[in-house]
Amino acid sequence: MDSPSSYSQTDPVKSISNILREPAPRSGGESRETAAEIVSEPTQAPPSQLRDESAELAAESNTPPAGDGAKLQRSSSDANRVRAALWRFLVLCTEPFFSRLRDYLLAPLIRRADGIEPLIGLLHPKFDGHAAETRTATECIQHQIVHLEFQSRNFAKQLARLESMLANQLARLESQAGSAHGRIELLVDRNSVVVRGELLARTPNGYVLAPADSLGFARFLVEAAALEQATSRLLDLTLREGMTFVDVGANVGLHTLHGARRVGPTGAVIALEPMPNLFRLLQKSIRINDMEDICNCINIALSSADGVATLEGSKYCGHNSLNQPVNEEAKAEFQVRTARLDNVLQGARRVDVVKIDAGGAELAVLEGMNHVLASHRDIVLIVEYGVPQLQRIGISPVEWFGRFFAHGLALFAFEEQTGAWRQIAEEHAGKLPSTTVAFVRPGTNQWTILKQHEP
Questions:
Q1: Cα torsion 423, 425, 430, 431: sign
Q2: Which mean pLDDT values do the consecutive 10-residue runs of the chain (455 residues) have?
Q3: What DSSP character marks residue 430?
Q4: Of 224, 332, 383, 384, which sits with the fewest C-beta atoms within 10 Å of its C-beta?
């Protein structure tokens, strides 16, 4: 050991520096450095360099002061070395303490983490089971949704069918209610009565039988004087006793009875009706009114040629035609005999007025009566002109009227405002709406009568 005097003569800074640079050997002969030493300690110089530095320090200690500047520089360098040495010393002393403190603080967390791992291992199967159950439940819900969608579509279809059925039943009930209401109105009016499924209506020209299920036509019969004002007015002007009236499309005989009243016992009425059921009612109406000696009823359809044709009958009285297409209103089809009016009236002494209501086949009737037109100059034609019928068969109004003008006939139309017939120029004929028109040759007695009654 060194003596105490040697310690007093040794520079304390150098002693601490030497101690820190050369730490005492560790147990077991290990020379292990702590993390703090590795971080804080600078790179160690070789032993020869250390000996040189020690010699320099000793020389410096024995060297006298060279001046104030040298003293200040040496003091600053010594202070820095002391601070660095102290910092390494503190790190070396506190490192075991902080290491134990860290182990002490982390130990409970490590123990808890070790205890959580088994719990996590136990929860994994449960989570897997719940996930499987969730997938199964989701698949079941999806299947139920698909099934519900299928059922909802079926319910929608069933509801649509039910709505259609209810709508049809409601329409049927409304029709029946309207039918009953119409019958009640007719009974209250006291102008008609239903007898054995047939409606007996009183008109200004006599009693007329009509189908009881055609209440719209029944009302037409009751109000015939107002609704058929044009035809009735023209028959009154052109028919006189002893004349011959031809009713083409007589239906149940409304105009037939009117013509019979006008021509009287010395005249003649020829009523032509192709529909079997309407023809039977026509015959009954003539018999009820005791007009059998005046009226001659023929079950035939007039056309441009003799033969057999198919007639489509509507559920409405008076709507029958050889040209009418099959539609929802058509109740039945009938095979009927057809003939030219020239052949039907062959040998007739006179023909004064011909009313044509053929449901769109008026031109075919006209084509079959060329001889009648040529033989009877004073003839008057009363024709139903319908624009929809012309559109259906593809004939323009100009062409339709031109067929009549080709026979030298003049056109008259009824004015509802004045209640009179007025002559229409040929160039204005195509502008007329659907109405009843009359054709007569200019200069004849009938033409003069019509002109005299123009407003």
A1: negative
A2: 44 48 44 43 47 48 52 75 85 83 81 73 73 85 87 86 83 64 52 72 84 62 62 94 96 93 96 92 94 95 91 55 45 83 92 93 94 95 92 92 96 90 94 93 96 91
A3: G
A4: 332
